[in-house]
Amino acid sequence: MTPPTGRTTASSIIQSRIRDIQEAARGVTKQYPRSYILQCIKEDRFPDELWRELGKFGLLGLSIPEEHGGSGGGVLEITALNEALALAGVPTLFLVVTGLGRVPIVRHGTADQIAKYVTPTCTGEKKLCFAITEPNAGTNSFAMSTLATPAAGGGWRLSGQKVFISGARDADFMLVVARTTKAAEVKHRTDGMSLFVVDMKTPGIKLQQLNIQVETAERQYMVFFDNVELPADAVIGEPGKGAKLMFEGLNSERLLAAGAALGLGDYALSKAVTYANDRKPFGKPIGSYQALQHRLALAKAEIEAARLMTYDAADRFDNGEDAGAHANMAKLLASRAAVAAIDATLQVHGGYGFDRDYDVVTLWPMIRLLEIAPINNEMLMNYVGEHVLGLPKSY
User: Fold this and answer.
1) Residue 145: what pLDDT?
2) What is the pLDDT, as a whole number, of residue 267?
3) In this predicted structure, what is the pLDDT of residue 8?
4) Residues 6+ apart with CB under 8 A from 322
5) Beta-bridge partners for 230
6) Predicted local confidence at residue 10, as pLDDT
């Protein structure tokens, strides 16, 4: 049966958009390959050369309208970029937090705010990260205690702390989710939440690096805010109404994380296939053994299925549809498929898989992290159970 022409045409256009981005990204990753990112990790430094090159080619400006200094396109394009980087073995968490943080500013910020906080990120001149998670709230962000109170002169004073903040040391600005009304004082848990853009040079901000064993160039931080003075125009949108704005960004975050998982999963499989074709302890390539071959084949099939879900969700998001369920399912499926891929890759390599020189075990923490962050898969399944299947809430 022939598919409807309209759907076929839409699918072809999406594939063309993805290919264009991945081709452009390859021009950068050939210049800054996996060995480069491993060197940055070893030296504990941000991959500035890679980041500037992405800006030079207009790739950091993806998803930002041209009138704001961007390259146009939508979440689909920046997701494709994140996948392309991961496919080359150079994943960057910073692109996830940048892509997330810019969404509410572009959609709800003033022209001045967009020019100040978003436009410079399109060239790589400035970097933007995101802070929502707190030590005592965790996944229940509504219970956060970081508080912004009105200050004399029309500004704000921000106090509290955040945790697991990727790239805080390297960021120029941080989009912070804070309460402007305490959780105990609101009628509905989504009330009283606001978004603020914080200049990281502002006095009163302290960073504490966490001892997270994940092979990425971006480090994770605990961030402390001690009566940090913010100008009146630091707040994005209407004070107290930031929850909806936050969730708009979080849907894009899910998709960017899915893109990273897809790329890393395929990157791991490529290493497994190369090794399985070369390794011949009994005279035949171990890749011919069905115990390994079927495992790799299943992982590949699951990655491809997750890829379809991911870009369908991104297309829905860009077209203004409610993409929450699809974005959650995309991140769930992509992260699970990537974990299956790296697990199979480790098994194929046997003991050598745990030799860091083979660069296989080095991939595992990052891939496994994607089942936990930016939100754990259990919460994604809770969402699907409640909002898609109509099952009762359990928490």
Assistant:
1) 95
2) 98
3) 57
4) 316
5) 156
6) 67
The answer to whether 340 and 302 are in contact (CB under 8 A) is yes
What is the structure's pLDDT at 11? Answer: 81
Q: Can you give the pLDDT at residue 110?
A: 97
| Model pLDDT, residue 153 | 82
State percent of the chain over pLDDT 70: 97
Site of tokens 């660069």:
359
What ranges do the domains of the chain cover?
5-122, 128-242, 244-388
Which residues 6+ apart lie within 8 Å of 145 measured at CB?
A: 134, 136, 137, 160, 179, 182, 183
Q: Which residue ranges in the chain fall short of pLDDT 70?
A: 1-10
The length of the chain in residues reads 395
3-class DSSP state of 158: strand
DSSP state letters, 168-229: GGG-SEEEEEEESS-GGG-SSTTTTEEEEEEETTSTTEEEEE-------SS-EEEEEEEEEE
Q: Classify domain 5-122 by CATH architecture.
A: Orthogonal Bundle (1.10)
Evaluate whether 118 touches 175 at the Cβ level (below 8 Å): no
* CATH architecture, range 128-242: Beta Barrel (2.40)
- Can you list the alpha helix ranges (DSSP code H) found in the chain? 5-29, 34-43, 48-56, 75-87, 93-108, 111-117, 242-278, 290-318, 324-349, 364-369, 377-383
Cα-flanking dihedrals φ and ψ of residue 207, to 5°?
A: -110, 140
Q: Residue 174: beta bridge partners?
A: 129, 198
pTM of the shown model: 0.93
String of DSSP letters for 11-35: HHHHHHHHHHHHHHHHHHHTTS-HH
Q: What is the pLDDT of residue 394?
A: 87
CB 231 within 8 A of CB 52: no
Smallest Cα–Cα separation from 240: which of 178, 161, 154, 184? 178
285 burial (CB, 10 Å; 0-12 / 13-18 / 19+) is middle
* Contact of 176 with 169, CB cutoff 8 Å: no
> Which residues have CB under 8 Å from 152's CB, separation 6+?
none
pLDDT for 1 equals 46
Distance CA 302, CA 293 (A): 14
Architecture in CATH of 244-388: Up-down Bundle (1.20)
